């Protein structure tokens, strides 16, 4: 279980930086902005990805190839991609504070897709929100 947990954290860490740089670097933003271009926020947006993402995403995960068996990495990466789809919903309210503290939730991801200035370039994690908290990119959803 230690191997599985370790690679889970490493894949999440790679995703955090991949996603953050996809917002901060213009050439990467050009491929990621299609995901943020919709006026609606629903599960379909979670599946809408730029066609060139895969041309550079692998760079953020390459170091894992030297440490972990590739098949375990592939499983975790696919799990991460599928699970992020379900963050794209307005239906789920804020969850229990302990869940909100550790995991990325629909509330956190609504912030990520928000257009309010305080929400821009925040909450990049896939399934965990801890790296956003550590690296200063966390923003809680403000009730309207």
Shape: globular
Largest sheet: none
- Please identify the structural class as seen in this structure: mainly alpha
The value of Rg in angstroms is: 15 Å
The percentage helix is 40-55%
Q: What is the assembly state of the chains in this entry? A: single chain
N-C termini distance: 42 Å
Low-confidence stretches: none
| Tally of DSSP β-strands | 0
Please trace the helix and strand order, writing H or E for each element: HHHHHHHH
Descriptive key words:
single chain, 144 residues, mainly alpha, 8 helices, globular
What does the model show?
- This protein is mainly α and about 140 residues long.
- It has eight helices and no strands.
- The chain has helices spanning about 1-25, 25-30, 45, 55, 70-85, 95-100, 105-115, 130-135.
Indicate the topology.
Layout: H1 2-24, H2 26-32, H3 43-47, H4 54-57, H5 70-85, H6 97-102, H7 106-113, H8 130-134
Helix pairs in contact: 1-2, 1-5
């Amino acid at each position: 279980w230690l191997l599985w947990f370790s690679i889970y954290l490493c894949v999440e860490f790679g995703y955090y930086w991949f996603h953050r740089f996809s917002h901060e670097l213009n050439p990467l933003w050009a491929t990621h902005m299609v995901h943020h271009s919709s006026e609606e926020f629903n599960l379909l947006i979670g599946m809408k990805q730029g066609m060139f993402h895969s041309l550079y995403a692998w760079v953020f995960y390459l170091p894992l190839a030297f440490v972990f068996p590739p098949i375990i990495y592939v499983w975790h990466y696919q799990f991460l991609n599928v699970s992020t789809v379900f963050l794209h919903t307005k239906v789920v309210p804020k969850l229990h504070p302990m869940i909100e503290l550790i995991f990325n939730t629909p509330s956190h991801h609504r912030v990520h897709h928000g257009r309010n200035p305080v929400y821009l370039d925040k909450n990049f994690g896939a399934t965990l929100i801890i790296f956003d908290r550590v690296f200063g990119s966390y923003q809680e959803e403000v009730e309207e």
